[in-house]
Write a structure and sequence with these properties.
Blueprint lengths: L5 H24 L4 H25 L27
Helix pairs in contact: 1-2
Length: 85
């Protein structure tokens, strides 16, 4: 996922998050479906990689991801859905 723009990473995160939500709903009623489980793990991997790269480059994507212990960084940069300043 290297060399992705902020917008590209954000899109990958939102699309893979949607895919995960859909897979979770299906797996709730079909827990033994291996194809669905493989699908879930595939998009989980994409989501985690994109989220990690986004946070390393641009900061937290939501309040729960703030990692700084000495300063609340959530309000110091544009939020993910805002354009660049």
């Amino acid at each position: 996922m290297k060399n992705q723009t902020k917008e590209q990473l954000f899109r990958i995160i939102t699309e893979s998050s949607f895919a995960l939500d859909e897979a979770i709903q299906f797996l709730d009623t079909h827990p033994g479906n291996q194809e669905a489980l493989d699908y879930y793990h595939h998009y989980q991997d994409i989501y985690k990689k994109a989220l990690k790269e986004y946070q390393e480059c641009y900061g937290p994507i939501n309040q729960k991801d703030v990692a700084q212990e000495d300063y609340w960084t959530w309000v110091t940069t544009p939020w993910p859905w805002e354009g660049e300043c």
